[in-house]
Specification:
This protein is an alpha/beta fold. The protein has a single domain, classed as TIM Barrel (Alpha-Beta Barrel). The chain is 46% helix and 9% strand. It has 15 helices and eight strands. The strands form two sheets. Strands 1, 2, 3, 4 and 5 form a five-stranded parallel beta sheet that branches. The chain has a three-stranded parallel beta sheet with strand order 6-7-8. Strand 6, helix 8 and strand 7 form a beta-alpha-beta unit.
Length: 378
């Protein structure tokens, strides 16, 4: 959570019920703007930065610190927020006029190659896990790193099986295309893309190819369309690449590169709300309305598209979709019913699997003994 990173877990320094857009470093999320955005629920990302060696000792402690921040925030604001661990609890929070608060682990490095850690993080409240973040793991390849495993290793497939048994959503944002296919091959429950858009419109490696979207329909999962600027506009994506190349040509010092990049970033083009709607259109036209959600990635991205600057702007996007001919029923599905249906289906699969098998005791060194340990991973 960006809140935690900014104030080192001291929630008093960033009062959630105040308008935080006026801060020197403004946020994109707070309670007043969530109300304006007519939000009924949110997954709070309990993201932790990736260490030099993903899966290194200490990642579990760091993600637990983030989970603790979410629990404390909910306790601090009981009239505004309600912890939700199931789809029914999301609906109950909404009936009470509160924002249902769920948690997602962004990156499988958080489990430190241990199914025991995975189970304990589920018990602590995490309800989805993105299999990788920006770096590959010993058991899974990332979309933005060199491919070493070829998708999921045997242990990686066991991670997916155990997530199915627990009732934890398998999130395929950030993973390589081969990892997407492997996860779809082995998952007995619907999967999600928590914040990804359509590769056919914006050729960013973080986006979803049409071939995978077609498989997602068969899987009965959901693609949560993100608003991240370089994922929703090909013009913006290429401009970002060009700026990085220009900066790299000026200096090899990473700190100086970052400084130059920040100084020139404001000159780059920005996508618009219409660009995001185009991605929703593409997915609807390809696989139908039942497999689309919204994954804005607020407070996980730089300034968003024009018209979608913060969480208060969700209604503007829905208004644009209505203008394009979407029905009220379509809007309801995109705004929440599709992800709730996936949550319910995942919970149903978990009940069946828990009746059939015990928790897995698989160890990575045993399952992946025949798989070379990729350089730079643990």
């Amino acid at each position: 959570m960006q809140y935690s990173a900014r104030v080192k877990g001291n929630l008093d320094q960033m009062p959630f019920t105040s308008d935080l857009s006026a801060l020197e470093k403004p946020t994109q999320t707070d309670h007043p703007r969530m109300l304006k955005g007519m939000m009924g629920g949110q997954f709070w990302s309990v993201y932790i930065p990736i260490a030099a060696y993903p899966g290194a000792s200490g990642d579990v402690a760091r993600v637990l610190t983030q989970i603790d921040v979410v629990h404390r925030m909910i306790t601090t604001y009981p009239d505004q927020l309600e912890l939700a661990l199931t789809a029914n609890e999301v609906l109950e929070a909404h009936r009470q006029g509160k924002i249902a608060s769920m948690m997602g682990i962004e990156g499988g490095h958080a489990i430190e190659n241990s199914l025991s850690n995975l189970r304990m993080l589920y018990k602590a409240g995490a309800r989805y896990m993105t299999l990788t973040h920006s770096k590959g793991l010993r058991w899974a390849d990332s979309a933005t790193d060199e491919e070493r495993v070829g998708g999921l290793s045997p242990f990686g497939k066991e991670v997916v099986h155990e997530m199915n048994r627990l009732g934890m959503l398998v999130d395929l944002s950030h993973v390589s295309v081969n990892t997407m296919h492997d996860a779809l091959d082995v998952s007995s429950a619907p999967v999600i893309f928590s914040h990804s858009s359509a590769f056919a419109l914006t050729a960013h490696e973080r986006n979803i190819p049409d071939e995978v979207l077609l498989r997602l329909k068969v899987n009965n999962g959901v693609a949560m369309v993100t608003f991240y600027p370089s994922y929703v506009s090909e013009t913006v994506r290429l401009a970002w690449i060009n700026l990085r190349e220009e900066v790299s040509a000026q200096t090899e010092d990473p700190k100086e590169q970052a400084k130059l990049y920040r100084a020139q970033f404001a000159t780059l083009p920005r996508p618009t709300l219409a660009d995001v709607a185009d991605h929703i259109d593409h997915i609807r036209n390809l696989i139908g309305i039942d497999y689309i959600g919204l994954g804005g990635d607020y407070d996980g991205m730089p300034p968003g598209p024009v018209g979608l600057e913060d969480v208060s702007t969700y209604p503007a996007l829905l208004k644009e979709l209505l203008r394009r001919g979407y029905s009220d029923a379509d809007i309801a599905k995109i705004a929440g019913r599709n992800i709730l249906r996936v949550m319910q289906d995942v919970e149903t699969v978990a009940r069946k699997e828990q009746a059939m098998r015990l928790p897995s005791n698989a160890q990575i060194d045993e399952l992946d003994a025949a798989t070379p340990n990729p350089t730079g991973t643990l």
